[in-house]
């Protein structure tokens, strides 16, 4: 299985996402720990901006709208799309 291309990551910007209902976020000085109670995966969110966006995903129609609401500079959006693609693969976030 090949890694998603940047175009596929960019497409994620137009998708409605949410934290999986079985995921808990525990705040940490570096960002947060995300624990999925269903599959027992533990993921480190290594930046506070990632945590802020993850917390508001369900309140916005797309990932791009959530990034905009959190005042994330558009130049950083591709890296966020890549990170959220990884979180989708690990079932920390999901499409809604």
UniProtKB/TrEMBL annotation:
<dbReference type="InterPro" id="IPR023850">
    <property type="entry name" value="MftB"/>
</dbReference>
<protein>
    <submittedName>
        <fullName>Unannotated protein</fullName>
    </submittedName>
</protein>
<dbReference type="Pfam" id="PF26520">
    <property type="entry name" value="MftB_chaperone"/>
</dbReference>
């Amino acid at each position: 299985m090949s890694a998603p291309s940047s175009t596929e990551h960019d497409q994620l910007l137009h998708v409605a996402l949410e934290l999986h209902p079985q995921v808990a976020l525990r705040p940490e000085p570096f960002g947060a720990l995300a624990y999925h109670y269903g599959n027992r995966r533990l993921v480190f969110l290594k930046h506070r901006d990632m945590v802020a966006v993850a917390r508001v995903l369900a309140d916005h129609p797309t990932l791009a709208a959530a990034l905009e609401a959190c005042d994330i500079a558009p130049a950083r959006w591709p890296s966020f799309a890549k990170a959220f693609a990884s979180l989708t693969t690990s079932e920390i976030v999901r499409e809604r």
